[in-house]
C-alpha cells in the first residue's frame, strides 16, 4: 500500500508540473516528458505534421514560432508551432540506446523553411495571422504595396497604397484571427478603401467588413472569404466579394496556390478573378508567379489574361 501511495504521489506531482509549468502555447501539441526550456541538458525531438523529425534543443517559443538548435550542429531552424505534431523530451542516455534522429551520421538535417505570407491567398484574406511583433511587406503587380504588423498574436493592422496613373487608392485594414484547434482558423476584419481620381475629380470611400474560414494547416489549406462593402460617400456603390482559394505545399521551398474571386458592383461590370500561381520561398521571402484571368461578366464575358507576380518579405 505504501508503494502504491508513493507512485500515486509521483504521478500526481508530474501531472501538476505538466499543467502549471508547461507554457500555454503548447495546448495543440502532444508532449512526452516534462518540457523545461531552462534545462539545457534536455534533448527535444520534434515530430512534424507531415512525419519529419528533428532532434536537438528548443531554444525558445515566441509568437507561435519555435527556435530550434540541431544536435551537434551550429545550424538553427525555425518552425511554426501549428506544424508540430509532437514534442518529446529525451535524455542523452536514450539517444545512446538507439534512438534514430536527423542531424548526425548519413542523415542530413532538412532545411524546411516555414511558409510565410499566408494571411492572404492571392487577394482573399485567410484565418491565419502574422503573430505579435512581426512585420510583413507585400507587393502585387509592382503597383500595389502593403505593410502589415502583428499587434498581438490575434490582431493585425495594415496600410496599402495603389498609385496607378489617374487612380490613387489607399486602404487601412484591421484583422482579428484565431485558431480553433489545429485545422480550423477564423478571421474577421474591416478594410477601409479610399480612391482618389485626380483627373476625374471624384473621390470614392468604402468600408468593407469581411470574414474568412480556413481549413487545414499553413502547408495545406482551403480558404473561404466573403465581404460586404458599405459606401461612405454618395459617389460609391455597395459591393459584395466572395473568394475561394487553396494553398498546397509541394516541396520544401515550393507551393501551388489557386483562387477564384467574384466582386460585384464594379462600375465596369462585375469581374471574376481566377488566379493560379507557383511560389518559391525561404525563411523571410516569398515570390509568387502565375496567371490571373479577369472575366467581365457584364460585357459579354470579356476574358483578359494578366501575368500574376507577387513578393512577400517578413521582417
Show the helix and strand layout.
Blueprint: H1 2-21, E1 30-32, E2 43-48, E3 53-62, E4 65-70, E5 76-80, E6 84-90, H2 92-96, E7 135-140, E8 144-150, E9 155-164, E10 167-179, E11 184-197, E12 202-216, E13 220-231, E14 239-251, E15 254-263, E16 271-281, E17 285-296, E18 302-314
Parallel strand pairs: 1-6
Antiparallel strand pairs: 2-3, 2-6, 3-4, 4-5, 7-8, 7-18, 8-9, 9-10, 10-11, 11-12, 12-13, 13-14, 14-15, 15-16, 16-17, 17-18
CATH H-level homologous superfamily name of the largest domain: monomeric porin ompg
Kindly identify the CATH topology of the largest domain: Porin
- Average predicted local confidence, pLDDT: 79
Largest sheet: 12 strands, antiparallel, barrel
Strand line-up across the major sheet: 7-8-9-10-11-12-13-14-15-16-17-18
- Report the sheet-strand fraction: over 45%
The gyration radius over C-alpha positions equals: 24 Å
Indicate the overall shape. Answer: elongated
Helix content: under 10%
Number of domains: 2
Please state the structural category: mainly beta
* Total helical elements: 2
In total, how many beta strands? 18
What distance separates the N and C termini?
Answer: 59 Å
The CATH class label of the largest domain is Mainly Beta
Element-level helix/strand string: HEEEEEEHEEEEEEEEEEEE
Amino acid at each position: 500500500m505504501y508503494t502504491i501511495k508513493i507512485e500515486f504521489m509521483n504521478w500526481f506531482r508530474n501531472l501538476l508540473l505538466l499543467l502549471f509549468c508547461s507554457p500555454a502555447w503548447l495546448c495543440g501539441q502532444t508532449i512526452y516528458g516534462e518540457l523545461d526550456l531552462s534545462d539545457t541538458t534536455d534533448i527535444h525531438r520534434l515530430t512534424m505534421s507531415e512525419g519529419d523529425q528533428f532532434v536537438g534543443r528548443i531554444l525558445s517559443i515566441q509568437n507561435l514560432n519555435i527556435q530550434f538548435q540541431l544536435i551537434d550542429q551550429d545550424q538553427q531552424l525555425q518552425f511554426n508551432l501549428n506544424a508540430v505534431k509532437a514534442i518529446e523530451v529525451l535524455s542523452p542516455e536514450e539517444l545512446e540506446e538507439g534512438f534514430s534522429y536527423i542531424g548526425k551520421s548519413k542523415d542530413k538535417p532538412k532545411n524546411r523553411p516555414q511558409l510565410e505570407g499566408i494571411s492572404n491567398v492571392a487577394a482573399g484574406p485567410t484565418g491565419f495571422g502574422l503573430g505579435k511583433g512581426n512585420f510583413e511587406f507585400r507587393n502585387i503587380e509592382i503597383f500595389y504595396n502593403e505593410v502589415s504588423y502583428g499587434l498581438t498574436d490575434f490582431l493585425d493592422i495594415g496600410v496599402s497604397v495603389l498609385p496607378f496613373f489617374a487612380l490613387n487608392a489607399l486602404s487601412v485594414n484591421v484583422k482579428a484571427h484565431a485558431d480553433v484547434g489545429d485545422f480550423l482558423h477564423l478571421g474577421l476584419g474591416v478594410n477601409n478603401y479610399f480612391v482618389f481620381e485626380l483627373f476625374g475629380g471624384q473621390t470614392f470611400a468604402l468600408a468593407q467588413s469581411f470574414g474568412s474560414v480556413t481549413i487545414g494547416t499553413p502547408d495545406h489549406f482551403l480558404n473561404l472569404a466573403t465581404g460586404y462593402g458599405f459606401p461612405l460617400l454618395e459617389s460609391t456603390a455597395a459591393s459584395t466579394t466572395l473568394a475561394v482559394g487553396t494553398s498546397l505545399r509541394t516541396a520544401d521551398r515550393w507551393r501551388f496556390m489557386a483562387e477564384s474571386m467574384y466582386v460585384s458592383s464594379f462600375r465596369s461590370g462585375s469581374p471574376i478573378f481566377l488566379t493560379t500561381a507557383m511560389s518559391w520561398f525561404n525563411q523571410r521571402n516569398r515570390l509568387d508567379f502565375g496567371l490571373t484571368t479577369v472575366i467581365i461578366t457584364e460585357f459579354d464575358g470579356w476574358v483578359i489574361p494578366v501575368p500574376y507576380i507577387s513578393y512577400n518579405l517578413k521582417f
